[in-house]
Amino acid sequence: MDKLTIPGDSRLEETIRREVGHLPGQAFIFSGTGDRLAAARFLAAAIQCRGEERPCGSCGPCRKVLAGIHPDVMVVRDPDHKNLSMEVLRQVRQDAYVLPNEGEAKVYLFPDCGILEAKTQNVLLKVLEEGPAYAVFLFCAETAAQLLPTVRSRCVEWKVRGAEESGEADPRAAELCRLLEAGSVPALAAFFTGLETGKVKREELQAVLEDGRRLLTAALLYRSGCGGSPGPGSGLTRRQLNRGADILDEAVRQLRFNLNTGHVCGGVCAALARCIRL
């Protein structure tokens, strides 16, 4: 049986494990150059998992998800047509209101949104907006633009990185941590103003802030005597590191709801400025 993993994107694995207990919605888009289907299955297993660390990969529900036999995880396909037909999506919509068989949720996995036409996507709008809390929809798309704006607005997007993108942290994340360490509010404001005037893309800003959170977490472990070596932000106090990581984590959550990048930049800058004064 395959191992539970997202090839080339351990960062997303970490994010899903951390957030699965309080997911910010019932519909998710997995976009990007990485293994989107593996990422969607990873989340599906985490949702159904009964282990302490979700997904554990060894409990019955995890094994069933990986084997493709979990009764509450359905891969939406239409072998009789080139694209997903209206009838298939109507069946999905109707089934979503039926209680789960074994798990706490029913998961509908769309492995290729390239075969999900605009006219058929509208069938899902009502269930995405007003459906039961136990119905979860996972859309795999090369780009979120394959889905209608009305569908995207009801989803949280997670970008899946390919192996070529999984190297060192974004250098801007390290710069952000060093600015926090220097304690200069004007320099911090200039950093975020530069991102905003440079028209930073939402997924790009998300990656910078997520990498920044990881660097602050690593610095906190070092300051706590849990190993590692000095890095960006390690000169901050443990209280500042904790608060800074929480601020960046919350900003990443906001970006998944398609909030304006300028709004997020301003909010993060103000919050981090207060963090400097702790």
Structure description:
This protein is α/β, with parallel strands linked by helices and 278 residues long. The protein has 2 domains: 10-165, 3-Layer(aba) Sandwich (Rossmann fold), CATH 3.40.50.300; 171-276. The chain contains 12 helices and 5 strands. Strands 2-3-4-1-5 form a 5-stranded parallel sheet, with helices on one face. α4 (86-95) links the parallel β2 and β3. α2 runs antiparallel to α3 (60-67), α8 packs across α10 (202-223) and α10 packs antiparallel against α11 (238-256). The longest helix is centred in the C-terminal third of the chain and has 22 residues, at 202-223.
Ordered list of secondary-structure elements with their pairings:
Blueprint: H1 10-19, E1 27-31, H2 36-48, H3 60-67, E2 73-75, H4 86-95, E3 106-110, H5 118-121, H6 125-130, E4 135-140, H7 149-152, E5 156-159, H8 171-182, H9 185-197, H10 202-223, H11 238-256, H12 261-276
Parallel strand pairs: 1-4, 1-5, 2-3, 3-4
Helix pairs in contact: 1-2, 2-3, 8-10, 9-12, 10-11, 11-12
